[in-house]
Write a structure and sequence with these properties.
The chain has 221 residues and is α/β, with parallel strands linked by helices. Helix content is 51%, strand content 15%. α2 packs across α5 (89-98). The radius of gyration is 17 Å and the shape is globular. It binds cytidine-5'-diphosphate (2 copies).
Length: 221
């Protein structure tokens, strides 16, 4: 059987991974995996079930049987539309709190690998290139300055009518990145063979074009 090509987009929070990965998937006609949504959904499921964020065995059971559905741009957990709750800063923090637990990561591994289907997959997260799709032919490590990322989150929140403090947002995202980068299991870091892309001064379209160019360069003809 033909190997399924996978493009990995890893990087810190608000670097634009999701935006880039979804746009690439649309342009290539490939599948898209938002791996962070799985950690976020586990955090929401834990809250719903009253499970503590350090109860590794119970969290792993929740992660292994997530009643999650992606449909028409919405996300459903156990029949409830959780699209907004999933994206909240609190849910991101909660996801980062349970993400270091090896049993939780193991429970989500097959689910993620099962998303690799022809004609291809674009996957974004923290350990797509280092762990989940370590054999992927193209890995991108996406970064942007903390100031730029805080501004992007600020604008995303403002668009939803939520007012936030930029300095506080920057502190929060740096704290989450530090936790993600310092954990023992699958920390946030560039794979050895990843190509670095700092998009602080790039438009979304320029970032998409850069990765498409890299992908073209890797084709035999
Ligand atoms: O998935 P991740 O948290 O890394 O970031 P995102 O939610 O995809 O992107 C954060 C925000 O940055 C979005 O509002 C994008 O429109 C914006 N942005 C971008 O993704 N790429 C740029 N080159 C410039 C802005
Ligand atoms: O969009 P943003 O970058 O803020 O977050 P996300 O990609 O939705 O991930 C939320 C949290 O889940 C991260 O801070 C990580 O702790 C965790 N995560 C992970 O450990 N491994 C992944 N492949 C994806 C997310």
């Amino acid at each position: 059987a033909r190997a399924v090509p996978v493009i990995c987009i890893d990087g810190p929070t608000a670097s634009g991974k999701g935006t880039l990965a979804a746009a690439l998937a649309a342009r290539l006609g490939w599948h898209y995996l938002d791996s962070g949504a799985l950690y976020r959904a586990t955090a929401l499921a834990a809250r719903q079930a009253g499970v503590a964020l350090d109860d590794e065995a119970a969290l792993a059971r929740l992660a292994a049987a997530l009643p999650l559905r992606f449909e028409a741009g919405r996300v459903w957990l156990d029949g409830r539309d959780v699209s907004e709750a999933l994206r909240s800063e609190q849910t991101g923090m909660d996801a980062s709190a349970l993400a270091p637990l090896p049993a939780v990561r193991a429970a989500l591994l097959n689910l993620q690998r099962g998303m690799a289907r022809l004609p291809g997959l674009v996957a974004d997260g923290r350990d797509m290139g280092t762990v989940v799709f370590a054999d992927a032919p193209l890995k991108v490590f996406l970064t942007a300055s903390a100031e730029t990322r805080a501004e992007r989150r600020y604008k995303q929140l403002a668009a939803k009518g939520i007012s936030a403090n930029i300095a506080r947002l920057r502190d929060d995202l740096q704290a989450r990145d530090a936790r993600d980068a310092s954990r023992a299991a699958a920390p946030l870091k560039a794979a050895q063979d990843a190509l670095a892309l700092d998009n602080s001064c790039l438009s979304i379209e320029q970032s998409v074009q850069q990765v498409l160019d890299w992908w073209q360069d890797r084709q035999p003809f």
